[in-house]
Design goal:
By secondary structure, the chain is an alpha/beta fold. The protein contains 16 helices and 16 strands. It folds into two domains: about 260 residues, SGNH hydrolase (Rossmann fold), CATH 3.40.50.1110; about 250 residues, SGNH hydrolase (Rossmann fold, 3-Layer(aba) Sandwich). Strands 1, 2, 3, 4, 5, 6, 7 and 8 form an eight-stranded mixed β-sheet that branches. Strands 9, 10, 11, 12, 13, 14, 15 and 16 form an eight-stranded mixed β-sheet that branches.
Length: about 550
């Protein structure tokens, strides 16, 4: 039978499409294996499964994920082992980043996944994890044996798989060793090369988690943490298959006494896992859908626009204010609706998330969070203030010293130049739209961690004054109004001798354009340092009312 050229073409196309479909179907069945390894902040130390319900975006992660295979070996002396593949679930009532990672990845991409986790607190890259001369708990050979055994079990089951990524969070212990700390980058480079060699995966992608600067170690051991970060970044920059994953903005456990802690804790671990998932999904072309740019533009051509700049740390960012809590509240429900009459721009988490140009004011935080900007804008609007825009610049993993023009020895953490550029750009963008722009004020919420650490609390007023003075010079506005809000400072005998409130009052008394706002009557918060949803809403109202009272 003779076939026409057209028939041959159609037949060939069908064969190609069928082959492609078959390949895709086979690919969708291939198990993507992810390896999680490191020390205590990879284990999930000081987290509690029973606390997951307190953080609405992560509800349900206390339950097993039957669609995800899990193999684990955790701890140092008394190791907890899965002894085979099991359903992904919390181990020993501890929350690890793998729980939220798996849910994000399986929700957003096709194909099954499996996780192999080997981690132990208090271990060194220079010693325990050293591929060439492991000492101590000899984590490298242990992890290699566990991974090879787990993969062999998949082979035995006839399961097709590929090693997709290696998540690494470690470094705190190396900063205490005079030899390990300066050689962290060199050791990490060798670590990555050894895994690729031993697992026969020359193109294995590594995700290197940033050490969290929001912990007490990010304050009292600032130079050491910085040294480790330089080593990590050096490797990520030189290795196209290694990626540095920011984690300083995630939640941190609230400890006893002054409140500062060493570990992420429950909320931080859940967010920690999302960070890795986001990085991985971005690498395979799956990105979070951005919020839409504001349209139509709400201000008449050539009109005057008042620009309000919100700035600060954990609570200005909204670390523990969740959208789901607003959904359950009839009173605050209107805050969930995007307000298209207020242009909103943001840079939060030290640049971890930025706005899509100017957006409508609405909930925009990562992990389904929001800050006081929602009730701030609503309060101003309810008091007949029109033609206003809000720009928000925050980093919950920062301390006040990071905002000073001088910065600290941890130079990469100095955010003052970025903050000033953000304010300047916000003004310039509104001006380019044809508006006259009035910078109505900068609303800064005092660093919460600074109030809990003796030397930082002592220097806070002076540092804030330095920021204020230099900003007025750099923005060429000698009478720029700063509204500095302060929640009750940490109440603990170790820091109570420093009357930081009185010192801030003195700064305000000497500067008529420095407004000290005492946010001392907010709704009760369950833990020190962090204001929860109801309090964040009230904080926004309070700072707006302070502006209105001083008009």
């Amino acid at each position: 039978m003779n076939l026409s050229f057209r028939s041959l073409f159609v037949l060939s196309l069908l064969l190609i499409l069928g082959s492609t479909h078959s390949l895709r179907s086979e690919e969708d069945k291939t198990v993507r294996v992810f390896i999680f390894a490191g020390q205590s902040n990879m284990v999930g130390s000081d987290s509690k499964v029973k606390d997951i319900h307190r953080f609405p975006p992560f509800t349900g992660l206390e339950e097993p994920q039957a669609n995800v295979k899990f193999w684990y070996c955790l701890g140092r002396e008394n190791k907890m082992k899965s002894d085979g593949w099991v359903d992904l679930q919390p181990v020993n009532n501890v929350v690890g980043p793998e729980l939220s990672f798996a849910r994000e990845v399986t929700r957003s991409s096709k194909g099954p996944i499996a996780i192999i986790k080997v981690a132990a607190g208090g271990t060194h890259l220079g010693g325990d994890w050293n591929p060439d001369e492991p000492i101590g708990f000899k984590m490298y050979p242990l992890a290699l044996e566990q991974i090879q055994t787990a993969l062999a079990e998949l082979d035995k089951q006839g399961t097709k798989y590929r090693i997709e990524g290696f998540m690494w969070h470690q470094g705190e212990n190396d900063m205490f060793n005079k030899d390990y700390m300066p050689n962290y980058g060199k050791n990490l480079k060798n670590f990555l090369a050894s895994w690729r060699r031993d697992l026969k995966t020359p193109k294995l992608k590594f995700y290197i988690g940033e050490l969290c600067t929001k912990t007490i170690w990010g304050m009292d051991l600032r130079p050491r943490m910085y040294a480790i970060s330089l080593g990590q970044k050096e490797v990520a920059k030189a290795d196209p298959l290694a990626q540095y994953v920011p984690t300083s903005h995630v939640g941190v456990e609230i400890g006893g006494g002054v409140g500062l802690h060493y570990h992420y804790g429950t909320l931080g671990q859940l967010e920690h896992g999302v960070n890795y998932a986001t990085a991985y999904l971005n690498n395979i072309g799956i990105n979070e859908k951005p919020r839409p740019t504001l349209s139509p533009w709400p201000y008449k051509k050539e009109s005057k626009v008042k620009l309000f700049v919100l700035a600060g740390h954990r609570n200005m960012e909204g670390e523990r204010a969740f959208v789901q809590d607003l959904i359950a509240s009839d009173v605050n429900h209107p805050l969930l609706q995007d307000n298209k009459k207020i242009a909103f721009k943001y840079n939060i988490g030290g640049g971890y998330k930025t706005s899509n140009n100017w957006e409508a004011l609405g909930p925009a935080g990562y992990y389904s969070t929001f800050g006081p900007e929602l009730s701030f804008g609503q309060t101003l609007q309810q008091n007949s203030l029109a033609n206003m825009a809000i720009a928000k610049f925050t980093h919950s993993g920062s301390q006040i010293i990071d905002w000073t023009p001088e910065g600290s020895e941890a130079k990469s953490r100095n955010i003052y130049p970025d903050f000033i550029r953000f304010v300047q750009a916000s003004v310039a963008e509104l001006t380019a739209q044809g508006h006259t722009v009035e910078l109505a004020g900068i609303f800064y919420h005092v660093g919460e961690n600074d109030m809990s650490f003796n030397p930082y609390r002592k220097d806070a007023p002076q540092r804030i004054q330095s920021i204020v003075n230099q900003s007025r010079e750099d923005l060429k506005m000698p009478q720029l109004n700063w509204y500095v809000s302060q929640q009750p400072p940490t109440d603990d005998e170790r820091v109570n001798k420093i009357d930081v409130t009185s010192e801030l009052e003195k700064v305000a008394a000497a500067d008529e354009h420095f407004h000290h706002i005492k946010a001392f009557d907010l709704p009760p918060q369950p833990q020190k340092l962090v204001i929860t949803t109801e309090g964040i809403v009230e904080l926004g109202k309070l700072i707006a009312e302070s502006y209105l009272d001083g008009k």
